[in-house]
Amino acid sequence: MNIKVLDSIVYEVLLSFSLYKRQTHLKYLAISKDWYNTTKNKISKQLDEEILELEDLQFEDLSVHLIEHCPHNDFRGYHLWLSQLPLGEMYELLSPYVSEKKGMSNDLEDRRKKHLSLLSMWYEEYFLDIEEMVTTILADHIKNIDRTALNAHPFHEIEKITKGFDIENLQVTEVVLAPTWHFRPLSLIDIFNNKVVLTFPCLMTTKDETLLITKALAEEKRLQILSSMKDESKTFTDLVHLMGMSKGNIHHHLLLLRSAGLLKIKPTRQDYFHYKFRHNRVQDLSNLLLVY
What we know:
The structure is a single chain. The chain is of the alpha/beta class. The chain has 2 domains: 2-130, no CATH class; 206-290, Orthogonal Bundle (Arc Repressor Mutant, subunit A), CATH 1.10.10.10. It contains 16 helices and 7 strands. It has helices at residues 9-22, 35-42, 45-53, 58-62, 64-69, 75-84, 87-94, 108-125, 131-143, 147-152, 154-161, 206-217, 220-228, 236-243, 247-259, 280-290, and strands at 2-5, 174-180, 188-192, 195-201, 234-235, 263-267, 273-277. The strands form 2 sheets. A 4-stranded mixed β-sheet has the order 1-2-4-3, with helices on both faces. The chain has a 3-stranded antiparallel β-sheet with strand order 5-7-6. The mean pLDDT is 93.
């Protein structure tokens, strides 16, 4: 299995753009709860409207593979490289990762132009002001990855880095690990045929990590959820039936438990997860309290 750590600020530009478009899990992220409205007021009305009008992010979701192959890790280098990349070569880079669920635009050239135009505006109007700070944080985080341990015990280390993702059952040949500042403390996963892209969060401060765990444990329903999966894994549907709660409430509790790293998450190719209590995270809490 080939494991690569993606060291490119372009991916963070892309993730922040995607976050603004989708507004996914915003209230569970460490960035300001007013981030969307603050950013909306910061960028131009033209950019906001063009993002709103964008039908989907299929090209953006696939573009992680372009970022991976780009010889530059800065945004302007990526923009120039992609604008000059022959259409046939771009198709060859993307086609291995296309599926029924992750499609490719019928007009690839027009979609590339749209991607470059919107992402360039986003970079100039939003990202440029925070680029130096975020670049430094991501670089420091990448340096702290134990490459020797990652190569020796890949699945164990991937679970630790991503705060719970267990991908051993997926039998993939490629894994890309991409650190993120915008999505901390959550990890995200994308499965592209025989390749997995895992977005993992930059570590929070000791205080914040401690609060994440204690907050997740300070609710009876979440304790019941953890207790139900201490011996065997549960799916989202299992928990809805077992807990007698709405899907929205279960989703909320699972995201808080995921944020705290209290769940071992085993993804499937059928787009659902198996969840199990990640017991060793309780030991992490003990260690965090010693240095709090």
